[in-house]
Amino acid sequence: MRQQIQACDFGRKLSTLAALFWLSIPLLLGQPNVEARLSPEEIRIGEQPTYTLTVTAQPEISIDSVDLSVLEQLVGVEILQQQLNERTGQGQLQMREYKLTLTAFEAGRYDLPPVPVRYTLKGEQAVAWSNELSLLVNTLPVETDSTQLRPLKDIAAEPLNFWDVLPYLIGILIGALVLGLVWYWLRQGKDRPAPVKPPRRIALQAYTQQKLDELEQQQLWQKGEVKAYHDRLTYILREYLGYRFDIPALENTTDEIYRALSGQAISREVADQLYQLLQTADLVKFAKAEPPASFHAEALDRVRGFVRQAEDEWLVLAIYESGKTEVYRKPNPEENQSQTAS
User: Fold this and answer.
1) Would residue 68 count as lying in a domain?
2) Reading across the β-sheet that carries 200-203, which strands appear in turn?
3) What is the mean pLDDT of residues 281-307?
4) Could you tell me the residue range of the domain that residue 296 belongs to?
5) Which of 88, 123, 138 marks a domain boundary?
6) Which of 123, 138, 153 is the last residue of a domain?
7) Among residues 104, 99, 2, 95, which one has the least CA distance to residue 43?
8) Which residue has the higher pLDDT, 50 or 91?
9) Which alpha helices (DSSP H) does 287-332 contain, by range?
10) In this structure, is residue 11 part of a structural domain?
11) pLDDT confidence of 19, banded at 50, 70, 90?
12) For residue 38, what pLDDT is reported?
């Protein structure tokens, strides 16, 4: 019995020495040793074996690259994770260890090709190759049905009736009612007319005098804008005449305005002065006449004097937000008393 044990130990030592000798052959020849291992070599679909690549080299050898792309190009096998460990072994040997986690999802045998390792020794480049491995992937075992259960039957369909759809009909009616009420409420707000803002009311004479003051402050003719000055001045005068005497002065010519004023309660002398002023302004605007500088200020003063002279304190101008204007006569207490007495 003791002799058998000793024989076994001797055999193990002999196999170990043989393996070490085989691995040391590349080192003795002056090239790196590249060894690939796969654990386990047989898996089921989805399991993750470990691929280990060990590169051992003498100190004077420079490892240039380890090309693992040959494994990445393998069809059917995927690399999930990759890890590199570097350390120095006995006698200052260089050791690199690459650990790759693999997996496969199709059954079959996959040959893992040798991995090339490029190195440089004494200025000369060379390639060392790892050993080739094989991975066997098995399908998952199919368990037999020991219970002998019968297959499931289809669900029996029940015919549709009125009571099944009644809740949906009620929901649709309620939704339509709510939408109708919302639409009606929104339409009520849109159809309701916006409140009309009351107009600004001002006495006609005060309104006209205010426009003349604004024109004077602009100093148009002093800035050389003579035509614009007389355009604005004659517009204010024509607007006042239209409001005061109810004539279309803004549309009429100077001659038509003169004839319309002949029937109003103003003197012939005042009508002639207005006619002369409007005619001179027409020459400035259309014939580019250049009257003396004193004429511009005198024309403004004449319009002011005419507005004061033709004043009717009971005429009021209503100016609406839309820009529309309206002249009306406010009640005269004296006239009301006389009418009441008669």
Assistant:
1) yes
2) 200-203, 315-319, 325-329
3) 84
4) 201-336
5) 138
6) 138
7) 104
8) 50
9) 293-309
10) no
11) very low
12) 92
